[in-house]
Amino acid sequence: MKASPLRLGVNIDHVATVRNARGGAHPDPIRAAHLAVLAGADGITAHLREDRRHIRDQDMERLKRQLFVPLNFEMAATEEMIGIALRLRPHACCLVPEKREERTTEGGLDIIGGADHLRPVIRELKGAGIRVSLFVEPERDIMDAACELGAPVVELHTGTYCEAVLEGDRARIEHELTRLRGAAAHGAGIGLEIHAGHGLDLQSVRPVAAIPEIVELNIGHSLIGEAIFLGLDEAVRGMRIAMDEGRLQAGEPADAASAAR
Ligand code: PXP
User: Fold this and answer.
1) Which residue's C-alpha comes closest to atom 6 of ligand 1?
2) Which of 29, 41, 72, 227 is the most exposed place for a label (fewest CB within 10 A)?
3) Is 90 exceeded by the pLDDT of residue 37?
């Protein structure tokens, strides 16, 4: 299969994390969003959590007003967030599970057990012209469930794969890449648009970028962390290069475990 271009969505949540550590307005996540776009980001992602630990309501308002690239509003499927999304009308909403005590999003959405809750939410957001994606584990039956729910897009959770890369566990890396490849191929085959994200960094991104059905990666923590040392511009440009290098391998049998080192 010929791979289509791969988009980079930059998640700016952790610029807000640093800002909130001191209160005040610095560093401004919207300034970071503009810089990321200038450096090559195709879109900006922000997660408005129930506890507002990083991105705040006003940040979402400013992003919606000021951005010229697609805004991806990551959110839990709660009444409050649905109301905000319907008012703001971002380009996209990515529905994620959210637990108060977690440090970051852990695991994908339970779209099989939660189907009755999610179905009307997806319908309502889509009805407002918002592209809905579901953040899910890379499994074939979950692709089928997403399709049945009427979601046009899924974002495959890459967290377990990234953990395996950090541990340097070659067998687990290959196992997780096989899951990602299988889910991406199956999902695309039944008409879903396939995105991926969570935990990706320069070490892990290439084999994921090489999966031809994946058309968008959403990356935050590693980019904002690298920005401390390199500046955001260089961090985003470096990630773009790594993604493009990975993409060149799309469709070719690669030694993924060594590509991920
Ligand atoms: N995609 C989703 C759905 C997420 O919840 C997150 C984390 O906010 C990301 C992508 C980005 O993950 P990371 O910050 O680890 O790059």
Assistant:
1) 198
2) 227
3) yes
